[in-house]
Every structure is written in structure tokens, then in C-alpha cells.
Amino acid sequence: MVEELVTAAVVAASGCVVYVMAAAKVIKQYERGVVFRLGRLRNDVRAPGFTMIVPFVDRLRKVNLQIVTMPVPAQDGITRDNVTVRVDAVIYFKVVDAADAVVQVEDYRFAVSQMAQTSLRSIIGKSDLDDLLSNREKLNQGLELMIDSPAIGWGVQIDRVEIKDVSLPEAMKRSMARQAEADRERRARVINADAELQASKKLAQAAGVMAEQPAALQLRLLQTVVAVAAEKNSTLVLPFPVELLRFLERAAQPPGQPQAVESHAGSQAVDPQAESQPPQVESQSPQSQPAEAPAEPPPPPQAVPPLAPPSVPPAA
Predict the structure, then answer these.
(1) Does the pTM of the predicted model rise above 0.90?
(2) Of 73, 28, 79, 74, which Cα lies nearest the Cα of 51?
(3) Who's near 163: CB < 8 A, 6+ residues apart?
(4) Angle at CA 156, nearest 5°, toward 44 and 87?
(5) Which helix (H) or strand (E) holds 42?
(6) 140 vs 163: CA distance, rounded Å
(7) Separation of alpha carbons 311 and 316, rounded Å
């Protein structure tokens, strides 16, 4: 009798343990529990922690409340300005009402994915290519509103929608590259023209200053020669102006010595040292000598005996 009682107690305890194990549920912090009793939804949504249900009568379904990151497959479409593009996006959403997410829609993840693809195609058809490339913030907001409107009834809230990439045909890429290159070339030409204008004004001012001081031009020439010669990788051919030679010649003379006097014709200069030296007598031809007689007559030439005429033989 005692053994039967012990056996029955053990069986009852085992049944209680099995019942408790079947009835006990643990809900994580980021989850909510939706309970169906005999197929009907219980009004109370189970909070995180330990909870009990009636085995074989209640069915607990856990719903994740974390933000879900879902990529939207790339969609091919034609923009409003008739350009074929391929656009993909990413959507961030979360469940705010666990009961509606379970009851109102069969699979809220699949429903949100399909709605996102449809809305993305609609946005592509309503937008221009320039808006897809440069005005994405406005398109993201419009896409978010289009997806969020039906998702509210599913207990889902759309946090953010981002267009990731816009793929263009190769011909369109080349056309856009040529357009951008032409625009950059135009700006470069405008900048070069502006630089030339500013440089010409500064050169005109510099020329006015150098016109007042001619030595400044020679000094600038020497500075240019020094700058070019510092490279030591090229042969420098420098034309040496005559004015610089005259300037150096005047600078080399002592302060007290008179400078060379130039003739009005500007052809020759008289050297003062040459005037102090005695003149050299050069032989001149008789035609170039003056008509005056010399002071002393030259000695008479010596007499030379005349030569005898050649003998001619008599004619036959």
C-alpha cells in the first residue's frame, strides 16, 4: 500500500513538473508575448520576464520589437525625364503594437518589403534624374510617408528609408562625364582670363615704375638669370644689351674723371686718355697729303745710269 502511494505521488509530481515546464515561458526584454486561448486573442500582452500559460489551451507567440534593417531589392524604372535607372534602398522599421503585427497581417516583414519595392518604383517614375542624384533627402521623406501609411495598421512604424545607389546606363554616364568636363574647362578658362587681367594690371604698374628707374629693369633681368641658372638643367643664352655695358662703364670710372662725351650723331665716343697721348704719324698716300710744302725738302734721289736700248737686228 505504501509503495502504491509513493508511486502515485511520484507520478503526480512528475505530471506537475511536466505541466509547469509546459506552462512556464520566459519572454526576453526586447520581446512581447501575444497569447491565443482556444484561438482567441487575449487582451493582455505579456511583458518581458517569467509568465505562465495554460498548456494545450493557450498558445504564446513572441514578437520582436527591435529595429529591423531590411534591404530593398534594386528596382528598374524610368524617370520622369525618360532615363532608365536602377535604384536600391534600405528600410528601418520596428513593431510598436505586437497584437496588430500578429493579427492584422500574416507576415509583416514580407508585407513591408513588398510595400517598399512598390513605393520605390512609384518614386522613380515621379522624379527626375537630377532629383535622384542630388535631392535624395526629399525623396527619402516621400518614400517613408508612402510606406508608413499602410504600415500603421499593421502595428509597424517606419523609422527611416534611405536610397543607397542609383545605377545609370554607360551611355548616360559618358554623357554626364562630358558635360562635367566641359563645365570644368569653362571655369578653368574664366579663371585663367581673370588671372591674365590681374597680371596685366600689375605688369603695367611695374612697367611704370621701371620707366622712371631704368636700372630697375637691368636688376630684374639679373634676378631672372639667377633664378633660371639655379636649376642647372638647361643651357642659358643671355643677350647682353649695349646699354648695360655703357652703364657698367660709367659706373667703373672714378668720380673725379670726366665722362666720355658722345657726339650728337651717337656714332663714336671720345676717350679722354686717347687725347693725352701723342698723336701717331701714319703714312699717307700722296693724294691724301695736304698741298703745303714740307719744312725741309727730302734728299735728292741718287742718279741711276740709264739702261741701253736693246739692239734690234736689221731687216732682211
Answers:
(1) no
(2) 28
(3) 87, 88, 89, 120, 132, 136, 139, 140, 143
(4) 165
(5) none
(6) 7
(7) 15
Distance from C-alpha of 253 to C-alpha of 271, rounded to nearest angstrom: 12
Which residues is 92 bridged to in the sheet? 69, 160
C-beta of residue 105 within 8 angstroms of C-beta of residue 111: yes
Q: What are phi and psi of 37, to 5 degrees?
A: -110, 115
**Residue tagged 727730302 (cell numbers):** 298
User: Measured at the alpha carbon of residue 73, what is the angle toward residues 69 and 77, in degrees to the nearest 5?
Assistant: 135
Termini Cα distance of the chain: 207
List the chain pLDDT tens, one digit each, 316 residues: 677 777 888 888 887 888 778 888 888 988 999 999 888 888 888 888 888 888 888 888 899 999 999 999 988 888 888 888 999 999 999 999 898 889 888 889 999 999 999 999 988 888 888 888 888 888 888 888 888 888 888 889 998 899 888 888 888 888 888 988 999 999 999 999 999 999 999 888 888 888 888 778 778 878 887 887 777 777 777 666 777 777 777 777 766 655 544 444 334 444 444 444 444 434 344 443 444 444 455 555 554 444 444 444 444 3
Local structure of 275: helix, strand or coil: helix
Q: Which helix (H) or strand (E) holds 261?
A: strand 261-262
Grid cell digits, residue 117: 519595392
Sign of CA dihedral 193, 195, 198, 202: negative
